[in-house]
Amino acid sequence: MTEKNKNTIQCRSRLRILSGDLIALGPGKVDLLESIGREGSISQAARERHLSYRRAWNMVDTMNRCFKEPLVISVTGGKGGGGAELTPTGKRVIKLYREMENNANVAIQTEWKALKKLLSLENLRG
Amino acid sequence: MTEKNKNTIQCRSRLRILSGDLIALGPGKVDLLESIGREGSISQAARERHLSYRRAWNMVDTMNRCFKEPLVISVTGGKGGGGAELTPTGKRVIKLYREMENNANVAIQTEWKALKKLLSLENLRG
Asked: Is the pTM above the cut of 0.80?
C-alpha cells in the first residue's frame, strides 16, 4: 500500500481463476507475467515484484501446468546466458485478464458510487 | 473449498473496499453481515462463518467505523438476553455489494469464455 492510498476510498476488483485446487491466475500472477515480459528473466521479474526467486518460479510453474500451453518459456543465449519470455498464449492470457478486470470495474461503477456515499471519511488522514 | 470445486474451473471476482488502511468491506465481511442478519447474533454468526467471536466482533467494529452509520447494532431482550441486528444501512450495503459482484461477473463472461478454452483440464480430478 502506497502513501497515496492511505488517504483514499477505493474499490478493487480482484479476479482469481481456479483450476480445481490450484490458483491458475490471480492479480499477483498476472503482475508477475507482465514483469517477465518486460524483464526477460524470472529472477529480474521476481526482484521487481518483491518475490523470492523460488516463489516466482513456483508461480510460473503453476501457471504453466494450469494452461494447455505454457505461458512462459526459457530462452537461451543473450546477456547473462539465458532468460525467460512470454509465449503468445502468455500474452493473450494477460490481455484477457486485464480486459476482464477493466470490464468488471466499469460494471460496478453505479453501485460503487452509491456505496461510496455511505462511507465515512473520518478514517482517512488529512 | 468444497469437494465439488476440486473438479471445476472457475473464475471468482472478489471486491474489496478500502478506506485508507482499513478494509471497509470484502467477501468475508459481507458473508458475516448476512449471517448476522439471519442469526440475530454476532456469536452465532461467527460460528456459522467459522470465525472466533473476537475476530467477528473486530470485523463488525471495522465496518461500523468505516461507514457514516453503523451496519450492525446491539439489541437487548429476546431469547438469550441480547443480540445484534442489521441496520437499514447494513442491509443496503449488502445489497449494493452483491449487485456489484453480480454485475462484475456478468461483465467478464465474454473474456472468461475465451480464457477458459486456454486452460488445461489435466489438473482436475476425474
From this structure: yes
- Our CA-based measurement puts residue A62 at a distance from the nearest CA of chain B, in whole angstroms, of 10
Indicate the angle between helix axes B27-39 and B53-66, nearest 10 degrees: 110
Residues of chain B with pLDDT under 50: 1-2
HSE toward the beta carbon, residue B65, CA cutoff 13 A: 15
Query: Domain containing B98 — which CATH number?
Result: 1.10.10.10
In a domain, A6, yes or no: no
Query: Is A11 close to B20, i.e. CB distance below 8 A?
Result: no
For residue A11, is it within any domain? no
Domain range for B36: 16-124
Which neighbouring-strand residues pair with B76? B82
Report the chain B residue with the minimal C-alpha distance to residue A108.
B100
- The answer as to whether B5 is a domain residue is no
In a domain, A46, yes or no: yes
| Residue A115 near residue B110, CB atoms below 8 Å | no
Give ipTM to 2 decimals: 0.86
Beta strands in chain A (DSSP E): 9-19, 22-25, 72-76, 82-86
What are the strands, taking DSSP E only, across A20-119? 22-25, 72-76, 82-86
Number of structural domains chain B divides into: 1
- Amino acid at position B70, single letter: P
Per residue in A68-126, pLDDT (tens digit) is: 999 999 998 655 557 999 999 999 999 999 999 999 999 999 999 999 999 998 877 65
Residue A71, amino acid: L
Beta carbons of B7 and B125 less than 8 angstroms apart = yes
Q: Within the 30-89 window of chain B, which residues sit less than 8 Å (CB to CB) from chain A?
A: 65-69, 89
Grid coordinates standing for B77?
431482550
